[in-house]
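Note to self: the last two entries modelled the partners one at a time, which told us nothing about the interface. This time every component goes in together.
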Amino acid sequence: MYPILKVENLIKKYGNKIVLSGISFELYPSDILGIIGPNGAGKSTLLYVLLGVVSPDSGKIYYFGEDFLKNRNQILYKVSFASQYISLPYSLTIEENLKVFAHLYEILEVDKKIDELLNLFRLFNKKKTLTRTLSSGEMMRLNLARAFLNDPAILLLDEPTAGLDPEYIKYIRDLFKEFSQKRKLSIILTSHQLGELEKIITKVLLLKEGKTLAYGDLTELFQKFRVSTLEELYFKVFV
Amino acid sequence: MRLSIFRPKRIWGIVLRHLYLLKHSISRWIDLLYWPTVDLLLWGFITLYLQRGFYQEGKWIYQFLGALIFWNILIRAQQGLAVGFLEDIWARNLLHIFISPLTIFEYIAGLFIYSLFKAFVASILMAFLAFFVFNFKIWIQGMDVFLLTLCLIIFAWSIGLLTMAFVLIFGQEAEILAWALALLFLPFSAVFYPVEVLPESFQSIAKIVPTSYIFETFRKILLEGYTPYIFIGKAYFLVFWYFLLSVGIFLIAFNFAKKTGKITKIGE
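The predicted structure of the combined assembly is written out below.
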């Protein structure tokens, strides 16, 4: 089986500060990779480099076996992203916002797709509501609905459950698992909620000051570091 | 017991809060110093023009109305681009845009079309108002008006792209340029007065500002009844270089923002 995403020796500096130092990893269909590290570890920068909004200084990124820097626009049809820290225009309704992005991804049968996603993320009754009236949890669900518009093969998520209440955290977690198992969706996510992360991820990448401190299958890392939870692993590696 | 309504120290605290803000903000300094300068120069030159007796010519009101309509086309087109970009920043939506398959050229093309729409709506409204209220028909000049308008719009796009480039380099602090940058060209553009009113040093600058030729042409058409095509040619020649330069600067700024990661921070 070939990796759906292969990252080789990624280096990124801001001035003299090294933000990513030789990051390498692979992602296969259905993998859910958690990127963990303290603030300033380079997690968000890594996601932005993987999305092509920040250019790396060196290293290679291959999606579906193709060089990302050479085929960025084609590849982005099958890659998506959602973050708690990025919103959608407040003055547009939920439906209008999704329609704009449906055009950017050249989605066919836009109305049907939007209805399907609004049902999936339990926002259908707010379809005509202005985005500015949404709570932070609803906003995150809208971001997730937007991220699923293009039926991504790889989904990158920055703190996807921040702002959600426990009921929705469980719902979204189950949804990610289902998409990962049934539709072979691969997910990369960052989160500080280690307990939540442990319930969903299959692989983990531990970053500190841009360097990989540990990477591999979750169960293998648990055995290697002789720990039984992600929190224990975190403290063993970082403290 | 101390009088609690007006305590000088507390009032000074409020003044300090704004002085500190001013200390760290170039855009607020621009706001403080730039607008009075532009206003003074603009109205000073208009007064000089009127003082020379031009107001006695019967068409001077049409000249002002026409100039106002043309200037508004430029401003609407420029802001359609620059403010359109800022709207995505204010909405913290820029990252969503740039992680989609959309290319930067497609994004700019979308903003160009929107800016055309804004300029069209504003110009139609102003042209009809000028006709119904002042009996001024700007459209009777036909093709020449179209040529001038097109040139103005391309220049407006150049200024819009430069504004966007500055925002990408300096962050949201530079957003005031969306309103200020076009006005930098206003005193030299001879919008409401001919170039000859300007001091010599200003006239030299006006020679490299395409809008000065556009507004001079408009005045010649209106007051003297002929179209100096050489002026239109000069305007297009200059606008071509301005546009090329602004596209180049914008692309450099865009790549700079991607390289430094600024693109992910703008609007935070």
